[in-house]
Specification:
Blueprint: H1 8-20, E1 34-42, H2 47-57, H3 59-62, E2 66-75, E3 80-87, H4 90-102, H5 104-114, E4 118-128, E5 141-149, H6 156-167, E6 172-180, E7 187-194, H7 200-209, H8 211-217, E8 220-230
Antiparallel strand pairs: 1-3, 1-4, 2-3, 2-8, 4-6, 5-7, 5-8, 6-7
């Protein structure tokens, strides 16, 4: 018996079909997973201390909830770390935050120590449009897009997945596609993984020169890209 594993294209096609039916179905299922994207701006002279302590102690945090990826910003941001978390629901997230507040080891060994090293913290919660794709092979380079969608594109989630399907290739894989919930409203977040950094510019070339990309971008108000390097303790490599 041969086990047939759906390709990424099949997964995207299934996701598009699900989005087409989103507003016509009354769901009685449990709450969808909640994803949280966090960005910390660090005091430049403390970046080394922050990363060293995180490598040593971050297991205290991941014991409470699922970490998907933890990266340093290499291009498009300076002295930043970006991390992506998964929760079962907003109630689950609230429970995790409460437990972290009461976890004395986490507080004393890590959290209280890093507070003076933080210049700014930002977060937004996300709904996933596809099943996130983990890659644990070493040597990858990640790129994150944050797109502010204009007001005249009601079906942008479907269009986004169709566009992403045309953009990825042998050297570039889509690992996550999300829409914002709390934070900047009407935003899309895409996380790509490149085999090497030099292949990354080709992704944007395809976005800006293809007819599908140009059509989608016609109703995008803001665009931001960052190149991210996975940390040693990041599950996504």
């Amino acid at each position: 018996m041969v086990l047939m594993i759906p390709s990424f294209s099949q997964k995207v096609a299934n996701s598009i079909k699900a989005l087409h039916h989103l507003h016509r179905l009354m769901s009685t299922k449990a709450a969808k997973p909640v994803y949280e994207l966090r960005t910390y701006n660090l005091v430049p002279k403390e970046v080394g201390n922050f990363m060293a302590l995180s490598k040593e102690k971050f297991h205290l945090r991941t014991g409470h909830s699922v970490l998907l990826g933890y990266w340093t910003a290499e291009l498009g941001g300076l002295n930043q770390v970006v991390h992506l978390w998964q929760y079962d629901s907003y109630a689950h997230r609230a429970g995790v935050r409460a437990k972290l507040g009461a976890d004395q080891e986490w507080q004393t060994e890590y959290f209280q120590k890093i507070l003076p090293w933080l210049q700014h913290q930002d977060n937004l919660t996300l709904e996933s449009l596809i099943e996130p794709v983990e890659n644990s092979s070493e040597g990858g380079t990640y790129e994150i897009w944050q797109l502010g969608i204009g007001p005249h594109n009601a079906d942008w989630k479907i269009s986004l997945l169709e566009l992403a399907k045309t953009l990825q290739g042998d050297q570039t894989q889509l690992c996550g596609a999300f829409s914002s919930v709390f934070g900047p409203m009407g935003s899309a977040v895409l996380i790509w993984r490149h085999q090497d950094l030099d292949s990354a510019p080709r992704l944007q070339d395809k976005l800006f020169t293809s007819s599908e990309g140009q059509q989608f971008l016609s109703n995008v108000m803001t665009k931001q890209s960052k190149i991210l390097a996975p940390t040693p303790f990041s599950p996504w490599k």
